[in-house]
Design brief:
The complex is a heterodimer of chains A (about 270) and B (about 425).
Chain A: H1 2-8, H2 16-44, H3 51-62, H4 66-91, H5 97-135, H6 138-144, H7 149-187, H8 192-202, H9 205-231, H10 241-271
Chain B: E1 6-15, E2 18-28, E3 33-38, H1 44-52, E4 59-64, E5 67-68, H2 74-81, E6 84-87, H3 99-110, H4 115-128, H5 144-156, E7 162-166, H6 174-191, E8 194-198, H7 204-208, E9 211-216, E10 219-224, H8 226-230, H9 235-245, H10 257-269, E11 277-284, H11 286-313, E12 319-324, E13 327-333, H12 337-367, E14 375-383, H13 390-399, E15 402-407
Helix pairs in contact in B: 3-4, 3-5, 6-11, 11-12
The chains are: A mainly alpha (about 270), B alpha/beta (about 425).
Chain lengths: ~270, ~425
């Protein structure tokens, strides 16, 4: 009787404002969750028995991503060299090619493109790996063994990202400048000495520091979002099991890339 | 009145609209094996996860020695968790680690033991579970049964005081099923831990359990000892237990106890009651044997004994079933005690010549450096009257048991 009665009680349709309210609450909840998740992970970086796992992750996130990052850097530098050469020729300022390439790379392109490349390569893998650990109860198993899953799984990845992102960014910058040299000097015939002198003369410590600050901020954003998405993939309402892991990986990559660009603007505006 | 080690007080757990545990009151006592039985999806694993703290109740409390687990501070919770271990239903092995790394992992992460000591402890446990050939393999390279044993090794490596087993025998062959159950009893005796187990291996699990809990539609359908479970008079539960038991004992190939009971009732309660009926209770001292040749070989001995009894006595119309872990009861219709004594004597002679020699061969590999062990097979013959219950027959036969066949240590040690 009670069951039959329930069928007649229709749920009220969601109004436009209800949907906005629900979305806002969910967004704030997630934001709060991610913040707490990051702080808990960060604190646990400094616990015992972490070094070995952090080194493993530095290898996995940093060392194995270096080749692809440098390849992207080389072609980015070469394209920059090509575009800027023809632009600067119009103004008779080809001599400023070295300055333009190096500053673009160190201030903006280096940190942003490196972060996006690592997100695509290591960030997605982080989400998928942690997601699989979650759905196969391996994270629960850690908990039952008195091993804090955040300490064992998340903290080393965040620490390794904080170490790897700036290092890979610096590789990106150097290789990018070499790419610019190949196009500008070797292929298009700009003076090599001028190119190198302009780089040396125009780069200040402020630019380098700014680039590193950005890369550290991106490291925190990417690693936290990717780990969070994987760690809580079982709570998703749009899919379960393997599908949830897939959806979490998509969310992690998309959200990380968007957040990198937003954070880039915010950090740049503070640094200027 | 004994204080429970773990107690559920009016625990309710819901997942969305579904109430999985509904106002449950439950007590688990120390140094006992408590088995939880129930249909799929009745919340057995959920109940177990509440004990370890993986889930928290929506209403009510789970108490450990009188303290609510969800209200413990971090230090207390850590101390509590150090005493508990959990064997997952799907094993939850770390698939990127080798078998050795999986088993050593809790020791590496939670203790300050040196590499050498960790290796020694892991190797010891691996040998006990016959996993030494799989040390460098990854879980995905192992069979389901081996994965289960690796998970068992990992659960026991820290010598926990409370072990929660979520279907530890699933996917195992009959010998290994019994071996795992034997191991649980063996380690329970050795280390004195409390075991809470989800299992459907009836009757084997009944033989080793001190208490049985039947979960039924989110509530406790039955809670008590095996003896009390036998008298349970709730039709649905009774039917469920019978369906789990099946028609045949997986280990020995003998008929199940339920089939045995029906056959016994048919013979002695039928229109034509045989004039002479006798019974024999065979047994081996399983715990002594386990100490010497290990649980797996002991189960093989038991299997061989069961098979041999079956092939020897079935053709003459007798029927047998495993009454307890190491006792086999055979009923001889149309046979008096003297005839039964003679049959047992002949059986014992053959047993010495054929079966025990086989057992020696089976055991040699396992025993290795210590080939000296005795196997005593006991038998007790009794007369059966139409008013005797099976329990009464067993009681009488136990009192008349004597050694009928011995395999002696042959090295003169």
């Amino acid at each position: 009787m009670e069951k039959a009665g329930k069928e007649f009680i229709k749920k009220p349709p969601f109004t436009f404002f209800q949907k906005i309210g629900q979305g806002t609450i969910r967004f704030i909840n997630t934001l709060g969750g991610i913040t707490i998740f990051f702080f808990l992970s960060f604190i646990n970086i400094f616990r015992r028995k972490q070094i070995r796992e952090i080194i493993n992750q530095v290898y996995y996130i940093g060392a194995t991503s270096s080749l692809i990052v440098m390849l992207v850097a080389l072609f980015t530098g070469m394209v920059l060299g090509l575009q800027l050469f023809y632009t600067l020729v119009k103004f008779g300022s080809v001599g400023a090619l070295g300055s333009a390439i190096s500053l673009s790379l160190i201030r903006e392109l280096g940190p942003v493109l490196t972060a996006i490349m690592i997100t695509a390569r290591a960030g997605s893998a982080m989400t998928a790996e942690i997601g699989i650990l979650r759905i196969s109860e391996q994270i629960d198993a850690l908990y039952t063994m008195r091993i804090n899953p955040v300490r064992y799984l998340i903290s080393p990845r965040i620490a390794a990202s904080i170490v790897s992102f700036p290092l890979l960014t610096s590789f990106f910058d150097i290789v990018g400048m070499i790419g610019g040299y190949i196009t500008g000097v070797i292929l298009l015939g700009t003076n090599g000495g001028t190119y190198l002198y302009r780089i040396q003369a125009s780069i200040n410590m402020v630019d380098v520091r700014g680039g590193f600050i950005k890369s550290i901020v991106f490291a925190i954003i990417v690693s936290t979002i990717c780990c969070y998405q994987g760690y809580y993939c079982h709570t998703r309402s749009d899919g379960y099991g393997a599908k949830a892991v897939g959806l979490a990986t998509i969310s992690a990559v998309v959200l990380s890339c968007v957040m990198i660009l937003i954070a880039d603007y915010v950090v740049t505006s503070f640094l200027m | 009145m004994e204080t429970p080690l773990i107690e559920f007080v009016k625990v309710t757990k819901r997942f969305g609209d579904k109430t999985v545990l509904n106002n449950i009151d439950l007590k688990i006592y120390g140094n006992q094996i408590t088995t939880i039985i129930g249909k799929s999806g009745t919340g057995k694993s959920v109940l177990l996860k509440h004990i370890i703290g993986l889930l928290e109740p929506d209403e009510g409390e789970v108490l450990f020695q009188g303290r609510a687990i969800n209200r413990m501070n971090r230090k207390e919770k850590d101390a509590y968790k150090s005493r508990v271990s959990y064997l997952f239903q799907n094993n939850a092995l770390f698939d990127s680690m080798t078998v050795f790394e999986n088993v050593a992992f809790p020791l590496i992460q939670t203790t300050d033991l040196g590499k050498r000591e960790i290796k020694e402890r892991v190797m010891k446990r691996m040998e006990e579970l016959e996993l030494t050939d799989a040390l460098d393999k990854y879980p995905s390279e192992l069979s389901g049964g081996m994965q289960k044993r690796v998970a068992l090794a990992r659960a026991l490596i820290t010598d926990p005081e409370i072990v929660l087993f979520d279907e530890p025998t699933t996917g195992q062959d009959p010998i290994r099923k019994n071996m795992i159950l034997s191991m649980i009893t063996h380690y329970k005796k050795k280390f004195g831990f409390t075991a809470v187990m989800i299992s459907h291996d009836i009757p084997d699990v009944f033989f080793i359990s001190d208490r049985i809990i039947i979960l039924w539609d989110g509530r406790i359908g039955f809670e008590g000892t095996y003896e009390e479970a036998k008298k349970v008079n709730i039709p649905l539960i009774d039917e469920f237990l019978r369906s789990l038991e099946g028609f045949e004992d997986e280990l020995t190939g003998l008929i199940s106890r339920e089939v045995f009971r029906v056959r016994y009732s048919t013979i002695l309660g039928g229109p034509v009651v045989p004039l002479k009926v006798s019974a024999v209770l065979f047994s081996i001292r399983i715990s002594l044997l386990e100490e010497t040749i290990g649980p797996q070989k002991t189960m093989e001995v038991l299997r061989m004994l069961g098979e041999y009894i079956n092939t020897r006595f079935s053709p003459i119309g007798a029927f047998s079933a495993r009454y307890s872990r190491d006792e086999i009861l055979t009923i001889f219709p149309h046979t008096d005690v003297e005839e039964a004594e003679q049959l047992v004597y002949e059986f014992a002679q053959e047993l010495k010549d054929k079966v025990l020699a086989n057992i020696k061969l089976v055991s040699e590999k396992k025993v290795g450096e210590e080939p000296c062990f005795d196997i005593h097979i006991h038998g007790g013959v009794v007369d059966v009257s139409s008013s005797d219950t099976i329990d009464q027959i067993v009681e009488k036969a136990r009192a008349r048991q004597r050694i009928i066949a011995i395999h002696r240590c042959e090295n003169g040690r």
